[in-house]
UniProtKB/TrEMBL annotation, chain A:
Record-given protein name: Tripartite tricarboxylate transporter TctB family protein
Keywords of this entry: Membrane, Transmembrane, Transmembrane helix
Keyword Metal-binding: no
Coiled-coil stretches: none
Organism placement in taxonomy: Bacteria, Pseudomonadati, Pseudomonadota, Gammaproteobacteria, Pseudomonadales
TrEMBL record, chain B:
Segments forming domain DUF112: 20-440
The protein's name: Tripartite tricarboxylate transporter permease
Keyword Nucleotide-binding found: no
Membrane-crossing segments per the record: 20-39, 45-71, 110-134, 140-160, 172-193, 205-225, 260-282, 302-325, 356-374, 381-400, 406-428, 435-453, 465-488
Keywords: Membrane, Transmembrane, Transmembrane helix
Keyword Membrane: yes
Pfam family, one: TctA
InterPro entries recorded: DUF112_TM
Length: 153, 504
């Protein structure tokens, strides 16, 4: 775990340096105040850089609680699938519409968490339609209909 | 004597059947909205403004409705915090620290009812304080200039690290990440685009809802995946639903202390419930010392932030009503609602429209009592969420999270950003970084930078302003003590280890 922490600290440190370089040219065209727009971010990035440098050389051991299982290949694979499903959800949210995207992503996700096919399909479909009605119709949070747009008229 | 007269008049307004029904429906809606992850008081109040306006409510009823929703949301926010370990908003982050472990120990019902009780006491103390001190507090709060605010926020950030115990460095880094993220977007003072990478969706910064849902909801969803893999359930609810007298008595002084603290913190503009709950939790943790089991389900650790939130939620209305300065995001939204009715909050409001002010204050009493009465029997319904299996719950959390994020700006960019932040949060969690400092840093970051720049504008760039007044100087001394504490602790542990090694 210490190596992973070192890698993490190094990556974050590089990001800090990159962001600081990005912040360097930030200057107001004309200004009424003594402190410009780059002072605060540079201060924060500098402090973060120092803390990360310390961590790079002296990483602290990670304490695992008992109910925190070690990561194995299978879990990592599941996490990868879950992230992919979430990305599909974000990508199809507008083109396919809220209800279709929710069912499309929700059902495989329910399967991933150990649900059986039939109850997963039934519950997720009902929830998707119910949530749409609750938020779009009742609470005035506009949600895209997408493919189901034809039903509206 | 005047105050009591006005208060009586206020109860006359609040206790009309029409306003009672308004307050009741407000508390119910608020509790449900607060219960849903990703929908906090800001969303709840913001969503209700157009509805209240469309319903044609008179101004005092509209204000009562919004205040009741506000209180209900603060109330409902604890449910997802305690049962799911997902704080609905920043202020309930501290509630998760001990509330979730309590739920995992099978005390979910006790945790919920105890937190309802704590919040009630906090709100009651603050409402009494509001009646007594509103005019005096207005004067006191003005004494805080930008320099004082900046130093107070530095103190708050250092406090987080100093109180974090075994991992001050990681807490500090997490807070800095939050502070940095707050500077993304267009700079309000100079109009310079910062860290946006020419992406128009980032121009007004990272939305708080996106950050909070990514960090907590998405990373929790990924963590749950590991646990179902091993056949472990998130939380199980068994046993008692109500706290007993002994438990209530054991946190009574915590309630009183944190209620007063929450009220004072709530009154300070810009501080609000988030800071109050953090400071209350940290202070009680300190005071309990070795006798406490904070972080593992200590009842005091649950009561402290809840009481402070209850106190701060009411206290935040004081600067809003007396000065027109919002103490929190929610009160800022409420000022927007008031301006729809052509009401300008400020000292004049007390003289010109006492019905509105005192009716609102009286309705806070009424709404608080309603919440306790409603919540204690409804705890069974709330805990029933736990009986829902993960495979049904997690996709629904994911979908509602998506709605919550989409509702802010209606762009799918925010959805992708949330997933990115969620993965980052998951990695941070796996590497044992605490996540709540990221959020607190994010909230304080904008305020900190504004106050720093304002202070230095006042002094024309001279840094002395940051430590010249007695308040700032005192804050710096406290900050130094806080910085010194973890170093002392580390040094002690090291020398103990060295001695142990030498003996072997």
């Amino acid at each position: 775990m210490l190596t992973i922490q070192r890698i993490f600290a190094a990556v974050l440190l590089l990001a800090c340096i990159g962001l600081a370089l990005m912040a360097w040219p930030y200057q107001a065209a004309f200004s009424y105040e003594p402190v410009g727009p780059r002072a605060f971010p540079l201060l924060i990035l500098g402090l973060m850089g120092l803390a990360l440098l310390y961590m790079l050389f002296r990483p602290t051991p990670v304490v695992h609680s008992e109910d925190d299982p070690q990561l194995d290949r299978e879990t990592l694979q599941k996490i990868g699938i879950c992230v992919a499903l979430l990305l599909v959800f974000a990508g199809t949210f507008e083109p396919l519409g809220f209800i279709v995207a929710s069912i499309l992503v929700g059902v495989p996700m329910a399967r991933l968490y150990g649900g059986r096919w039939v109850p997963s399909v039934v519950i997720i479909s009902l929830m998707a339609i119910g949530l749409y009605l609750l938020f779009d119709k009742l609470m005035d949070v506009p949600l895209p209909l997408g493919l189901l747009d034809v039903l509206e008229n | 004597m005047d105050t009591l007269n006005y208060l009586g008049q206020g109860f006359g307004v609040a206790l009309t059947p029409y306003n009672l029904v308004t307050a009741l429906s407000g508390t119910l809606i608020g509790t449900v909205v607060g219960l849903l992850p990703g929908l906090g008081p800001i969303n709840g109040v913001a969503l209700l403004i157009p509805i209240a306006f469309a319903l044609g409510l008179p101004p005092e009823s509209a204000l009562i409705l919004l205040a009741a929703v506000y209180l209900g949301c603060e109330y409902g926010g604890r449910i997802s915090s305690i049962l799911l370990n997902i704080p609905g908003e920043a202020s309930t982050v501290m509630t998760t620290l001990d509330g979730y472990p309590m739920a995992r120990q099978g005390l979910a019902g006790v945790a919920l009812s105890l937190s309802a009780w704590s919040s009630f006491i906090g709100a009651l103390i603050a409402t009494c304080g509001m009646v007594l001190f509103a005019p005096l507090l207005a004067k006191w709060a003005i004494a805080f200039g930008p320099a004082e605010y900046f130093v107070l926020m530095v103190f708050a950030i250092v406090c987080l690290g100093g109180m974090a115990g075994d991992r001050p460095l990681k807490t500090f880094i997490a807070a800095l990440i939050g502070l940095f993220l707050s500077s993304v977007g267009i700079d309000a003072n100079s109009g310079v685009y910062r860290f946006t990478g020419d992406n128009i969706h980032l121009t007004d910064g990272i939305q708080f809802v996106v950050l909070v849902l990514g960090l907590f909801s998405i990373s929790e969803i990924l963590l749950l995946l590991e646990k179902t893999h091993r056949g472990q359930e998130a939380v199980e609810a068994t046993g008692r639903m109500m706290f007993n007298l002994k438990e209530a008595a054991s946190v009574f002084w915590v309630n009183i202390r944190c209620g007063v603290l929450g009220f004072i913190m709530g009154v300070l503009p810009g501080a609000g419930a988030t800071l109050a709950s953090a400071v209350a939790y940290m202070t009680e943790k300190r005071m309990a010392g070795a006798s406490g089991t904070f972080g593992q389900g200590d009842k005091r650790g649950l009561a402290a932030p809840e009481t402070a939130i209850g106190g701060a939620a009411c206290g935040a209305l004081v600067p809003m009503l007396t000065l027109g300065v919002p103490g929190s995001g929610t009160t800022a939204v409420m000022i927007g609602a008031l301006s729809l009715y052509n009401i300008t909050p400020g000292p004049l409001l007390f003289q010109q429209q006492p019905d509105i002010v005192w009716g609102l204050i009286a309705s806070l009493f009424v709404a608080n009592i309603m919440l306790v009465i409603l919540n204690i029997p409804m705890i069974r319904i709330f805990t029933r969420i736990l009986a829902v299996p993960n495979w049904a719950l997690v996709p629904v959390i994911a979908i509602i999270t998506g709605i919550g994020v989409y509702a802010v700006h209606a762009t799918t960019f925010d959805l992708f950003l949330m997933i990115g932040i969620g993965i980052f949060g998951y990695i941070l969690r796996k590497l044992d970084f605490p996540l709540s400092p990221v959020l607190l840093g994010f909230i304080l970051g904008g305020l900190m930078e504004q106050n720093l720049r304002r202070a230095l504008s006042i002094s024309n760039g001279a840094l002395e302003i940051l430590w010249s007044s007695p308040i700032t100087f005192g804050c710096w001394i406290l900050t130094a003590i806080m910085l010194f504490l973890p170093l002392l602790r580390i040094w002690r542990r090291r020398s103990a280890q060295r001695r142990a090694l030498a003996n072997v």
